[in-house]
Amino acid sequence: MTPELSNFETDSPARQQYSAHNPIEQYVLLAKGAKGAACTELIKQVLEAPGVHVFGELLAMPNIEELQNGPHSNYYNTLNLFAYGTYRQYLENQTKLIQLSPAMQKKLQHLTVVSLAIKSKCIPYNELLDELDIKNVRVLEDLIIEAIYADVIHGKLDQKNKQLEVDYAIGRDIRKGDVKEIASTLQEWSDSCETILLCLETQINRANTEKQKRIKHKESIDQEIANLKKAIKTQAVESDEAMATDTCRDIVGGLDLRKKPAKSKSLKGSGPGKSVSK
Fold this sequence. Notes:
Elements: H1 13-21, H2 24-31, H3 37-48, H4 56-59, H5 62-65, H6 73-84, H7 87-92, H8 102-119, E1 122-124, H9 125-132, H10 137-149, E2 153-158, E3 163-169, H11 179-269
Antiparallel strand pairs: 1-3, 2-3
Helix pairs in contact: 3-6
């Protein structure tokens, strides 16, 4: 009996939430009870299902793996191609694969664009036309626009330079043999981050040291300015006091000079032979 999605019932709210974020999960659950021809129908459904772009979990199911050595191996091969391959590979190996429906073909072409975007963020139209087996640029641009609306990639069409500029692309399934290479790449990236971090820390320490030097230098200058202001103020006070003292002396000297002529006149009035007594 062919499994139908309408018969699929989730067993918990948590399962429903997980399935909403992982569309392949419902097909994985269905595959547990499918055998033979039922598995082939399930594969056709998942290859046409919108929003499903990763297939590794389904490929790992024992019931699905059994197909690769039986009369339905072409279904397994096609599912494997959607997980890891491209539309160009489909064209080159059609005898080992099932015939694609229009929905399947478009999905595989979208996945092919994703694979190209992983290698380069600027993909020439010529390369896209060849990989997708499209002869018309307008048809190519329509396909890319559909991929953008399907949230498979984010980017823009550079019609002047005839290329697709990719800002984001979804992830695809990873082969087990690629895990070591990915781990090595991530380790190199981690080492580069560590090197950059150490460099930044060195620069920060150097900047902090220079900042402390500048702060101390500024404090020294501020102290010198304060001392100079204090010295100038002291000199001004001393100068004012000296000027006040000189002014007082001048005033006192002036008074003495005015008194002396008066005394001389008194003496002049007392001539010789004149008595000053009564």
